[in-house]
Design a protein that fits this description.
By secondary structure, the protein is mainly alpha-helical. It has 7 helices and no strands.
Length: 139
């Protein structure tokens, strides 16, 4: 059984799960009111950056699901670089989650707490899987 291919398939699917969860962020964090005092350009930049992150996550999930075999094997250096880049993306996201973001004021009910901690587990999983694919692909 090829565990790396299975893990990569689950990772690809997980990206789309993250998008479902992140679609709730604007409402849960009350972006409409919270961002209102900012200048228009700052509000626009905030939304544009958010959409760029969404596009990256869609790209990561799609690339992984379409090219699982390539990412799982040591056949091409580009596959290892792509896996490494995705691992760095999610690893940095974990560092931000643990050391920069303070979500405590927003974890107001069990659903938000479960979602926050569930996403943390997913980010750890993604970092681990893509690190595995980058450094220890199948031979």
């Amino acid at each position: 059984m090829d565990y790396l291919k299975i893990a990569l398939t689950l990772a690809g699917i997980a990206h789309f799960g993250i998008l479902v969860a992140s679609a709730n962020a604007p409402k849960a964090l009350n972006w409409k009111e919270t961002l209102k005092p900012l200048p228009k350009l700052m509000r626009q930049m905030f939304w544009v950056y958010g959409w760029f992150i969404v596009l990256m996550i869609i790209s990561f999930g799609t690339i992984t699901l379409v090219h699982t075999e390539t990412l799982a094997t040591a056949g091409t250096p580009i596959a290892r670089w792509v896996s490494g880049m995705i691992a760095i993306f999610w690893g940095v996201r974990l560092i931000v989650q643990f050391f920069i973001f303070d979500a405590t004021p927003f974890l107001t009910n069990w659903f938000y707490k479960l979602g926050y901690h569930g996403l943390t587990v997913v980010f750890i999983f993604l970092t681990a899987v893509y690190t595995w694919a980058a450094f220890f692909p199948n031979r």
